[in-house]
Amino acid sequence: MLAIVALLDMDRSAVSIAPGVRSTLVNPLTSRQCECLSLAADGKTSAEISIILGIAYHTVGNHFREIQKRLDARTRAHCVAIALRAGWI
């Protein structure tokens, strides 16, 4: 019960999925956005991601801006954390 109360009290933009718990939330990201996030989780830079995926450097930036909007995340690392905890990447 306390865990539920704690989740309700959390900031809406904070990651609210407990570590190690798979989410039943619907993934709002495209497959390409998930690819970008997965590569970022592996420590790849935007330049490296653009080369690996064969897309323009600016397109990678566009993907991450859209990901941040869709996940209501503050940073790229926050996006990765949300996606990992939700089991999307």
The string of secondary-structure elements, in order, is: HHHHH
Do you know the CATH architecture of the domain at 30-89?
Answer: Orthogonal Bundle
Please state the overall shape, judged from the principal axes of the Cα atoms. globular
Oligomer: single chain
Helix count?
5
Describe this structure as you would to a colleague.
The protein has 89 residues and is an all-alpha fold. It has a domain at 30-89: Winged helix-like DNA-binding domain superfamily/Winged helix DNA-binding domain (Arc Repressor Mutant, subunit A, Orthogonal Bundle), CATH 1.10.10.10. Helix content is 60%, strand content 0%. It has 5 helices and no strands. The chain has helices at residues 2-9, 31-41, 46-53, 57-71, 76-86. The chain is globular and about 30 Å long. Mean pLDDT is 82; it is low at 1-15.
Entry keywords:
single chain; 89 residues; mainly alpha; Arc Repressor Mutant, subunit A; disordered N terminus
